[in-house]
Amino acid sequence: MSASAKKRIMREYTECMKDTPAGMKINFDEQNMTKWEVLMDGPEGSVYAGGHFKLEIIFPNEYPFKPPVVSFRTKIYHPNVSNDDKGSMCLGLLRPDEWKPPNKVVAVLRLIQSLMVEPNIDDAIEPSIGNEYKENRKEFEKSAKDWVKRYAK
Amino acid sequence: MAVAGDDERTEELETLQSIYPELVLDAPFAAHIHLPVAPTIPLPVSFEPVQEVHRIAYLPPLRLEVDLPAEYPAEAPPKVNLSTSPSWLPPATAEILEKKAHALWEEYSGEQVLFAYVSHLQEAAETAFGLSELTLPDTVQTELLEYSKRMKRELFDKETFDCEVCLEPKKGSVCYRMERCNHVFCVQCLQDYLNNCIEEGDVNNVKCMSTDCGKPMPNGKKKERLLSPKELLQIPLSLQAVERYATIKRKKKIEADPTIIYCPRSWCQGAMRTDKYPKIDDVREMDHSDSEAEVPMEASPEEQPTAAGPEKRFVGVTGMDRLAVCEDCTLAFCKVCLASWHGDFVRCEPRDKNQLTEEDQASLNYIMKNTSPCPTCSVPCQKSYGCNHMTCFQCKSHFCYLCGAWLLPENPYAHFSNPGNRGCYNRLMDLAEGDMVEGQAQFGGARGAEQMADFWEHEAMRIQNELNAQDS
User: Where is this region: Disordered (chain B) (predicted)?
Assistant: First the structure.
């Protein structure tokens, strides 16, 4: 990774520290700054409220010309998060063809927070969960809350 | 006669010099100053013979010369002379401005007026002295345009910009302003980004990095323009990188065009000659910046081999002209049988696939086994990771990696959530870690299914043969 890329990550971290979005904690290791661990609280009022989710952000070598790779390390029942042991996400800003270098990690974190309040059904990576959200909201909420209790406490 | 030191004129010129340090004293009571002319709205200027109108933001400065007679200020007005070099200010305008000195002196009834006059000129310069347009002889064109450009650059150099990519404040002298959209980035970040795109062959991303760039189109997507080779050289990128960019961009267009046939000589493999994609001769002159969405050029009629030659004879279907000429080695060959040109009257046999070299066969086999073709442009795609909703690297089509079906760009995932699509239902994330797990192709997408079908067909044949052998 180039020195300028490291410098930019460092700057973004400093900015994040000055103005951390509510309900988040960022663990940063200066020795390995290309991998951030973020602890995100389920937003109040959402089905994930009360849960604590661990996320991993990996910066590619070409950062910021390529998007960071985000994954949920805590299992979450959500149409936009893959329902496997990877918890990967692949939408909006995070898609390589939509990412632009001035985008920042903070924007990514805010996107994730807003997706927890309202999933993006049109871009569901888990279509079955997306369908359930659309057609059987009660069932969806039950499973989501159940998973929070099971995995995110 | 008063001593210079006590003179009111000396006092006034000294005061003026402390306000405008650029004021130059030419004699005890004479001075000159250059006043910048940067109208708030750039002045439309055309040069004879009129071809195009240039909007000039910085005109060469106005030179004001003042000469204060002994009777000034009480009994005589200041003598002023206005000029520009090269001369662009119309004499009539200069005269009006010069008369203003007299008018001001009268208005001030014999008081010192130089400061008021200079302020007046400065104010008038902001509106280009009331000029709405200007026509000048073309002898001054280069000088005026160069001057404006140089001033722009000098002012830009002194400014400070926050580069949105490295997030650092940078002096204008190490920044670049994009020609079309005016976004500013530091040269280092632009070079890193663009060189990276060009190196990876991702020429469709050679465009402005800004998030709010590109005009929104009716379908909600943004239409962004690729940067022209000429602009890339200004940033500057190396000539070598820009040449690579232009070459790849052209190659992609040729590859996406199914009507283009390649030279059969294995050491050449150049594309056939066509007017549709002119060869690149000098990237420094290429200032067009086509967008990805641009409509391809209309096919142009083939060149006649010799202008005076016999009339073109059509063989078979009209327009089915089999003669092609390689643009690299100039071999004339037949588009159908790929043999060297045999004339119109020879019937050519379809190619025999055994003619492929071993190497070609091996790579063809690999492609057949391990890739899915894009349904639009047939470029072979291989998934490295992620879901089975693919976007073609070349033509941006959305398609399903498993079955090769086109997907709706607005809702590509519907394909995977429709139980009717038995093959793909709920399989969006199949093999998300990529085809090449531990170096072994696990699943070859659409073509993989064909391979499996072939395999089982062979297997069935083998079993049948075995059974037949047992029976006999």
Answer: 285-310
Q: What is the CATH number of the domain that holds B206?
A: 3.30.40.10
Mean pLDDT of chain B: 81
Q: What residues in A contact B417, CB-CB < 8 Å? A: 124, 127-128, 130-131
B391/A97 CB distance under 8 A: yes
A16 is catalytic: no
For B151-208, the pLDDT digits (tens) are 988 888 888 999 999 988 999 999 999 888 889 999 999 999 999 999 988 888 898 9
Tokens of B77: 């007005």
Does residue B49 contact residue B138 with C-beta atoms inside 8 Å? yes
Look at the alpha carbons of B442, B447, B449, B451 in this order and tell me if their dihedral is positive or negative.
negative
- Rounded Cα distance, B430 and B385, in Å: 10
pLDDT beyond 70 at A51: yes
Query: Which of B161, B166, B196, B402 has the highest number of chain A CBs within 10 A, making it the mutation to test binding with A?
Result: B166
Length of chain B: 472
Residue B106 lies in a domain: yes
Instruction: State what percent of residues in chain B have pLDDT above 70.
Output: 82
- Residue ranges in B159-215 assigned as alpha helix (H): 187-200
B384 at the A interface (CB within 8 A)?
no
Q: Which of B106-110, B210-214, B237-241, B399-403 has the highest mean pLDDT?
A: B237-241
Percent of chain B with pLDDT over 90: 29
Residues B195 and B330 in one domain: no
* B127 located within any domain: yes
B347-359 pLDDT per residue, tens: 776 555 556 667 7
Q: What angle do CA B182, B183, B186 make, to 5 degrees?
A: 125
Do B185 and B230 reside in the same domain of the chain?
A: yes
Q: B192–A90: do the CB atoms touch at under 8 Å?
A: no
Q: Number of A:B CB contacts under 8 A?
A: 71
B391 part of contact set with chain A, CB < 8 Å? yes
CA dihedral B347, B348, B350, B354 (to 10 degrees): 140
Evaluated on CA atoms A22, A27, A31, A33, the torsion sign reads: negative
Which listed residue (A33, A90, A121, A125) is catalytic?
Answer: A90
Handedness of CA B178, B184, B185, B187 (dihedral sign): positive
Measured distance CA(B425)–CA(B442) in Å, rounded: 19
Q: For chain A, which domains are there?
A: 3-151 (3.10.110.10)
CB contact under 8 A, B413 and A127: yes
Amino acid at A54: K
User: Domain range spanning residue B385?
Assistant: 374-460
Q: How far apart are the C-alpha atoms of B261 and B324, rounded to whole Å?
A: 8
Beta bridge partners of B25: B31
Task: List the structure tokens of B116.
Answer: 């008021």
Number of H helices, E strands in chain A: 4, 4
pLDDT in the model for residue B300: 39
Q: Do B416 and A11 touch (CB under 8 A)?
A: no
Which chain B residue lies closest to A122 (C-alpha atoms)?
A: B411
Tell me how far apart the alpha carbons of residues B232 and B211 are, in angstroms, rounded to a whole number. Answer: 19
Q: Three-state SS for B419?
A: coil
| Predicted complex ipTM exceeds 0.85 | no
